[in-house]
Amino acid sequence: MQKSNMPHSSGRTLRRLFLIALMALLAGCSSLRLAYNHGDTLLYWWIDAYVDLNSDQKSWVKKDIDDLFRWHRKTQLRDYVQILQTGQRQLAGNPTQADLMGDYDEIKSRTQLLLFKALPELADLARSLQPEQIATLEKKFTANNAEFRKKNMKGDKEAQQKFRYKKSMEQFELWFGSFTSEQEAQIRKASDARPLDNEIWLDERMRRQKNILTLVQKVQREKLSKDATMALIHTLIKDSFNRLENSERKPFFDAYDESTVQLILTVIKIATPVQKAHAQKRMQGWIDDFNNLAAEPK
Question: Dihedral sign, CA of 133, 148, 150, 166?
Fold first, then answer.
């Protein structure tokens, strides 16, 4: 790709861009296969919304995304099938907290692999951004934070717990179908048992955003080479993943993780055979879609 003549600049779209855009577009979709086949376009729009790509960047960013999806289709989808098959087996039995934490670690590992695979492309994007694009990125972060406050921090503790519970229920209903009022009461109790401190989550968001902006500004200011930029992004990704383990807030994060696992275990425990069959069917649909996607020559 001809990128050597581009101005060395900044580039964000790091941890969140290439994976969150990819998986968020799939998470609630009734047709995963359709969503995945249009994922390259959706990811391009996602990036463009953050940095407002110029005419020169658009063509090679699209090609980079196409290449990433091609690699992902050929090498990663079979692994996702295995993760889902593990979930099916666990759902049919009595999963433990250790089982669910193992699932989380496996997903985190696949996420890291995808981001590290995209390092060269992320570095190219970082070195090509213009100052006004960094400003656009910063404004996008500010708008996202305002949206977070509006949705997650509205009202008193009870209102915030209710909003968090409703978001969780959207996911549980996606997998298990509808719940009875008695089940909902038990789920609400387990949901409310999770520590609630949206100020912490907002601060963590802003911390990550500041680190990203610091990185891209350094790349632009010092006209860093591609290798140097890749090294910075690699460190940022690792630090982002390790942040919760090395944070002064670790007790809060640990308590939140443990109570979230207990919430999921509660749902599985109270789910009826019909609800579990609903979840098994949805997982099988994703398994079939991933197998079909992996087999397609695209």
Answer: positive
